[in-house]
């Protein structure tokens, strides 16, 4: 752990989706240095087993810790679902994630107690949102798995007939459930909030896990006394995959940071010891 407030915040996602979180954090904490790590060589995480996601995620978080970050942000619902308990034990730095902040907000904003979550298959299988929402009395949760949403985002597609047809199919159970609140339970999905809102209509409130995670990160750093009041806001973007592709696909969000990504070498996924 770095002992200085001017050390960077480490932000991790399977790929590009966490850029929605990074963007919200930069808006709220513009003076902070950040190191963003996208494990694009292994994404998507959504169709993988929880054990596999845990192994990949811990390797990435270990790497960020070795780089001297003062705090960790798990900017991926799937990775949060797989690794949160291990990460809290393993890393002694302020740590925020996307699931609890979004679940709390959804419970607060829902007027009817009918809440839905759209997420990846691994997140749904983990039952993490059922646990998070289940703690609230009188709230009924509908879960929809939307695997192709990640595929569209990774191709940079956020509109068009094909996406609309897929969104209508995925979101039909949300409409049937009469939920008044939908958690975007994958950090890629805020990039599709246009089509999601269009399909669900104006009476359904969308809760972005990205925005809520940024709020939680602000609060956690403030409580810990780790906010950097006079930083320069230096940002590095690392990818385990192809940096040019990362910069190209991530440009909608990365553009605001200068549109450049660096390759991350020597990340060993095999050596992570996982506590179970
Ligand atoms: N962005 C990740 C999440 O929040 C999922 C994307 C993936 O499947 O890798 O769940």
Concise synopsis of the structure shown:
By secondary structure, this protein is of the alpha/beta class. It has twelve helices and ten strands. Helix 3 links the parallel strand 3 and strand 4.
Major beta sheet, specifics?
Answer: 6 strands, parallel
Name the helicity range: 40-55%
Instruction: Calculate the terminal CA-CA distance, rounded to whole Å.
Output: 23 Å
Q: Which descriptor suits the 3D outline?
A: globular
- The number of distinct helices, counting runs of at least 4 residues, comes to 12
Outline the low-pLDDT stretches. Answer: 270-276
Return the structural class.
Answer: alpha/beta
Beta strands, count: 10
The helix-strand sequence is: EHEHEHEHEHHEHHEHEHEHHE
Mean pLDDT: 89
What's the gyration radius in Å?
18 Å
Ligand list: D-glutamic acid
Strand order of the largest sheet: 4-3-1-2-9-10
* Percent of sequence in beta strands: 15-25%
């Amino acid at each position: 752990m770095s002992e200085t407030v001017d050390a960077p915040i480490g932000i991790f996602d399977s790929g590009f989706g966490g850029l929605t979180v990074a963007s919200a954090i930069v808006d709220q904490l513009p003076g902070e240095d950040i190191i963003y790590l996208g494990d694009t060589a292994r994404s998507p995480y959504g169709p993988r087993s929880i054990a596999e996601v845990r192994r990949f995620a811990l390797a990435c978080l270990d790497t960020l810790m070795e780089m001297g970050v003062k705090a960790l942000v798990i900017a991926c619902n799937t990775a949060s679902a797989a690794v949160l308990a291990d990460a809290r034990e393993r890393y002694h730095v302020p740590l925020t994630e996307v699931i609890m902040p979004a679940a709390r907000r959804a419970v607060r904003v829902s007027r009817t107690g009918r809440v839905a979550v759209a997420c990846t298959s691994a997140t749904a299988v983990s039952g993490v949102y059922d646990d998070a929402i289940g703690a609230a009395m009188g709230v009924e949760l509908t879960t929809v798995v939307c695997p192709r949403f990640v595929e569209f985002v990774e191709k940079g597609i956020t509109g068009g007939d094909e996406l609309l047809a897929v969104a209508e199919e995925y979101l039909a159970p949300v409409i049937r459930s009469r939920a008044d609140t939908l958690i975007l339970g994958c950090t890629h999905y805020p990039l599709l909030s246009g089509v999601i809102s269009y399909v669900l209509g104006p009476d359904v409130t969308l809760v972005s896990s990205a925005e809520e995670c940024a709020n939680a990160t602000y609060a956690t750093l403030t409580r810990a006394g780790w906010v950097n009041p006079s930083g320069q806001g230096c940002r590095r973007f690392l990818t385990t995959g192809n940096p040019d592709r990362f910069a190209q696909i991530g440009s909608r969000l990365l553009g605001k940071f200068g549109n450049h990504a660096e390759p991350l070498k020597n990340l060993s996924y095999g050596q992570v010891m996982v506590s179970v």
